[in-house]
Amino acid sequence: MKRLGRFLGLVLIGAMLAVVLGTFVPRPLWQAIADRPATAHHILVLKNAIHTDIAIPVDGSVRQRFHFLVDAGIPADSPGVRYIVFGWGGRAFYLETPTWSELKAVPVMKALTIDASVMHVDVAGDIVESRPDLAGFDIGEDRFVALLDFIDASFQRGPKGPILVPDAAYSRFDGFYEANGHFNALVGCNTWTAAALRTAGLRTGWWNPLPVSLGLSMRLYN
Predict the structure, then answer these.
(1) pLDDT of residue 35
(2) pLDDT digits (tens, 9 = 90+) for 101-121
(3) What is the pLDDT of residue 9?
(4) Number of H helices and number of E strands within the chain?
(5) Where are the beta strands (DSSP E) in the chain?
(6) How much of the chain is in helix, strand and coil states, percent to nearest 5?
(7) How far apart are CA 122 and CA 192, in angstroms?
(8) Residue 3 CB: number of other CB atoms within 10 A?
(9) 130 neighbors 212 (Cβ within 8 angstroms)
(10) Has residue 11 got a pLDDT over 50?
(11) Tag placement on the chain: N or C end, fewer CB within 10 Å?
(12) Which letter does DSSP use for residue 164 in this model?
């Protein structure tokens, strides 16, 4: 028992050290010198206790690029929509845990080991930024296109395009799609968000498995 306790203690210390270093070591290490973009797109990072999403401002080109959402019944073309919100995560946990009261053991075990992944897509109107659960960033046109490319490439595709998960939604305004990649405790929803933000020209921590570490690194290095 003593050996087991010592081993678990070392694992815990190692995990805590990895999170700390992953937060305070920036990625990329050096900030590239960039001019202030002439045309800026204002993206938002939304977070809760365990998960982060990216909200993309909607314009005609964005609606056209993600036109398949409308075909699935997600009202991305509605006049009142200002953002399309994208998130990547573990299939079992995402689909089977719409609220904390519905938390089950099997989705949690899959999230801690390995699981297939899905993309969750939602829409939003005007979002008030004076909230502690979000942060906004301006990026230029080329970086905005690169971010859209990254998000688009996260959708798994079949012969007819992105694969909608049938009968899976939290409301009538959102939906789930099969995604590329596998989810586990090391490569999760927040590391996906961090990778997307780096594609957009922003700096994150080296490894950000938690929203709090990602948020702190974003404040430090951008």
Answers:
(1) 54
(2) 666 777 777 777 889 999 999
(3) 55
(4) 8, 10
(5) 26-27, 40-47, 52-57, 83-90, 115-124, 134-140, 157-158, 161-162, 175-183, 204-205
(6) 40, 25, 35
(7) 17
(8) 7
(9) no
(10) no
(11) N
(12) B
CB 53 within 8 A of CB 45: yes
Tell me how many degrees the CA angle 37-197-51 measures, rounded to the nearest 5. Answer: 140
Range of the domain at 183: 2-221
Which residues make beta-bridge pairs with 178?
118
Report d(CA 152, CA 88) in Å as an integer: 11
Distance between CA atoms of 185 and 63, rounded to whole angstroms? 33
- Tokens representing 140 are 């230029």
Provide, rounded to the nearest whole percent, the portion of the chain with pLDDT above 70.
Answer: 84
Over the stretch 125-161, which tens digit does the pLDDT of each residue have? 999 888 889 999 999 999 999 999 999 999 999 999 9
Query: Locate tokens 């270093």: which residue?
Result: 21
| CA 39 – CA 32 distance, rounded (Å) | 19
First-to-last CA distance in the chain? Answer: 46
What is the number of domains present in the chain? 1
- Tokens in use for 179? 């995604």
| Residue 33: partners with Cβ closer than 8 Å, 6 or more residues away | none
